[in-house]
Write a structure and sequence with these properties.
Number of domains: 2
Order of helices and strands: EEHEHEHEHEHEEEHHHHHHHHEEH
Helix content: 40-55%
CATH architecture of the largest domain: Up-down Bundle
Strand content: 15-25%
CATH topology of the largest domain: Dehydroquinate synthase-like, alpha domain
Strand order of the largest sheet: 1-2-9-6-5-3-4
CATH class of the largest domain: Mainly Alpha
Number of helices: 14
Oligomer: single chain
Amino acid sequence: MGKVFVDLKKQVDYSYEITIGSGFIRDSLAVYIGEDCFYMVDDKVFNLYESLFPDDRVHRFKADEHNKTYESVVSVLGFLFRCGARRDGKLILVGGGITGDVGGFAAATYMRGIAFVQVPTTLLSMVDSSVGGKTGINFKGAKNNVGAFSQPKQVLIDMDFLKTLPDDEYLNGMAEVIKYGVVYDAEFLEYLYENKDKLLNRDTETLDYVVTCCCRMKADVVKKDEKETGERALLNFGHTFAHAIETDSHHEVKHGFAVAVGMYQETEFAYKNKLADEKTLNDVKRVLTAYGFPITYEIRDREVFFHAMTADKKADKKGLTLAISPSTGTGKLVKNISIEKIRDYYSQI
């Protein structure tokens, strides 16, 4: 069983362990059975693993983008209040990224902040959203634009949850895995390409290695830039275009699949504007298509699509900020990109 340590600002309050392994979650959750512990659980996960949870103090949550809302946060707050949760309470979040984002935001605001534990059950949440303390909701059609930075007390990653994960949800997370290789580690990206069959077949040993690598890369970035004022923004590679795809498709395109298209199209945009080399574009295409990801998207409503980009958290009056990969394994932030340039790009593809 592996562990990754997140040490923010070298303060005890900002440090926590990420435990990665298989078959340990029942014993680990047993620590959090008590009058000061409360559970928020993805409804599908609860139905599959009901015996893991206490008979009471469980808030079941239907996790989808349409429920990533203020109303859902209020519902969690109401649950905590009715249960008599105090400031020393702990909220255990069991599910994918949406459960973690909504529950983490509720925990960050209840009594001005109570402790919470992330128990990710999807590949996407294991390698990305459960680590780093980003919490939040969608608001007024914009993705993740209301929220708070609030670090978990602990992250418990049991690979056994992936055995019951549907294929499309599994691939949904693989796009985020590929992202790390493109912007941080070319050798890791090549490893993903060479071990495609093992990963698509969910080989436990290979998956354990991949999840651990991603968590270490994420932890290293968060240590340097907790509040995303610089380097951490590189993790948004592919996400600016992806968020527009999600909004335009009314979230029919899952986040990871939108990120896959976003990674390719943001790289193609960068290449056409002499911000990335041709090898990087080919590398991104080669790995994404090897895993069966689409790299194109047909826009339904161009005004909705481009409005979603201008409403992005990384946009300001000077334009958009894009995280790109100038060469495979490296990342760079490019600021002040006009929406007109992006409109021109989409008019040519």
